[in-house]
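Q: What would this complex look like in 3D?
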Amino acid sequence: MNIQEVVAELKEERGGRIVMMVADGLGGLPLTPGGPTELEAAQTPNLDRLAQRGVCGLMTPIKPGITPGSGPGHLGLFGYDPLRYVIGRGVLEAAGIGFAVGPDDVAIRCNFCTLDAEGKITDRRAGRIPSEESAALVATLRAIRIPGVEIFVEPVKEHRFVVVFRGAGLGANVGDTDPQVVGKPPLDPVPHDEASRRTAEIAKEFVAQARKILAAQSKANGLTMRGFAKRPHLPGYREAYGLKAAAVAVYPMYKGLAGLVGMDLLGKPATLEEEIEVLEKAWKETDYNFFFVHFKYTDSRGEDGDFDAKVKMIEAFDAVFPRVEALRPDVLIVTGDHSTPAKMKSHSWHPVPTLLVADTCRPDTAEAFSEKACLQGGLGHFEAVYLMPLALAHAGRLAKFGA
Amino acid sequence: MNIQEVVAELKEERGGRIVMMVADGLGGLPLTPGGPTELEAAQTPNLDRLAQRGVCGLMTPIKPGITPGSGPGHLGLFGYDPLRYVIGRGVLEAAGIGFAVGPDDVAIRCNFCTLDAEGKITDRRAGRIPSEESAALVATLRAIRIPGVEIFVEPVKEHRFVVVFRGAGLGANVGDTDPQVVGKPPLDPVPHDEASRRTAEIAKEFVAQARKILAAQSKANGLTMRGFAKRPHLPGYREAYGLKAAAVAVYPMYKGLAGLVGMDLLGKPATLEEEIEVLEKAWKETDYNFFFVHFKYTDSRGEDGDFDAKVKMIEAFDAVFPRVEALRPDVLIVTGDHSTPAKMKSHSWHPVPTLLVADTCRPDTAEAFSEKACLQGGLGHFEAVYLMPLALAHAGRLAKFGA
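A: Here is my prediction, written as structure tokens for the whole assembly.
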């Protein structure tokens, strides 16, 4: 048995309520030797107080040295082994616009591109046409009809859009059609297994019809397809944990990821303040027993390489905790899906400072919430997939294993 | 290769002698925020001195968040992956009374119950009849004969007893006969695979004969069967580690568990003092090179929720260490099979303070034996299955892996 099977067997349908507060890209690095990380530079009186009450540790998102994308990062947080459950690019792109990919769907990332008279690509991104223009073109592609399959075409941003083929038995093992260089025509979609032959035929027919519709366009007169994917077969939160779970997020990507594991999406918050309002309202008026709250901007400012701005975002995140504590969750978790050091301007593999507060915590010596303090924490170094089992245990939701 | 296979390959039939002192349920929690755990509240001058000499750490019995029963807890301590080797309920119950379950045995937990004139259960525990009365009834059931199978019937406590069917090829995949509610008759034993058909027939015949024998009883005139199980196929200590191992324990359960991994059971000690006497004698007079010494009452007082009494038990445990040290074992381990915080009145998932003393220890900064001090320990956070490999390594009993 693996940990997920054990937890599914031991889960109980009663126990406490859990709040998981995720600051995307929380972990950081000093800009200069001997300096503080973003979290250490930030004034975080609330998180420091929680660190004293609870238990801290450093969470490895996937395995040491492995930098996660948002998909695997969140799967790990949600307790699903990211090396076992792979979210294909097409499904992730669809999740990113909040499109609920179903079990019979093949989702594909598409780019508008510019083709010359010979059909060779002259611009792989169609001059990065504006999103509005692109969305209007996407709408024209909805006229495409192919027998036996339902087709969805959804805009993403600039030249990017998503195509979803819905039909029983469609495989997703189809090669990309983007040749990755200019001067060559798009490749034909090539199936790599029997179940994907029909999918490849549909894709080819889709491209043919799209070319006719787009023929008069000067920039976006062609398209390429990448990342054919089906949603992973994973048990949802109810089945895996016996939890009725809800997600509070601003960005479609994180709503999409939460949706993949069976969380309900609450409200339409546009700011962290509004997210907390949604949480407060649902806490009082619903019987959800797990809440995932996602805060994006710690990651965004890290990606920008703006150390000071990330510090400010961490402080903004800290400031909402009195309101979260006032709800008196039985288990409160604060973590990130990965580190995004401003110094690196990217996601990184560094472990993520994590804290858990519950009445059943064994106190450690961490007196603040920081990478350094978490090194001394009672949770030690642990892999993300163990965060949910720990949350359930502290919520009194896991029975004893064996007698 | 997994760790167990590696160790089996590298084991050497020579090296030092190992003593593993297990205080059941050793780990704890503070009763109040900022307070000490039971181990931190206890005066443990001997264990503190050993912690300074040796190396400390925090041992996760199964995986983070998973609370072990006694069976999986000890399997882990003994180095067997508890998620791989599952001890069925029947075998554990048999182990609990010191019945040595053999490879051809199917062990079953049985309850006496009360049936009405229609054969429906009116009391699932037969009024919890006294153990003496129950044992006398169990003796009458030994008259049952079924061709081709040897039958053992052994009392446990009150209405509980164990039945063992011994016969080649008997499967144990048979459903429980306890309907879990009153007002219904016991279920028929239903086989869930081909190998278990004969077992189910035997069980049915056993129940039929038992009903005749018990017919005149007013309370215990029926029985239910649960947890049909065979012993797990696991390599014993000799095969796994090249060790000649002995167990010193007061309670039958722990003798039974030690027996399952091929340890010999020494003496009939009734107290911790007597256990140490048994250890001393065997140390001098035998060539066992591994000793498992089990102390029960730290767990018992934790289960009672009696913090102060658990503290006293830890102090009693501490007091015997000068005698253990006087034997000069090459490797001395002090640990528990899990935590049993008095605050929770139950087993818990919290990691277990652990120390190892040997000439090959790399000293750490732990100056006392406590949960907090172990956080700084050189063993770090580690899973129970690695304790035996560490013990063998420090005893000079593991060869180099690869050239």
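A: To summarize the key features: The first strand of chain A starts at residue 18 and ends at 23. Chain A has a mean pLDDT of 96.
Q: Very helpful, thank you.
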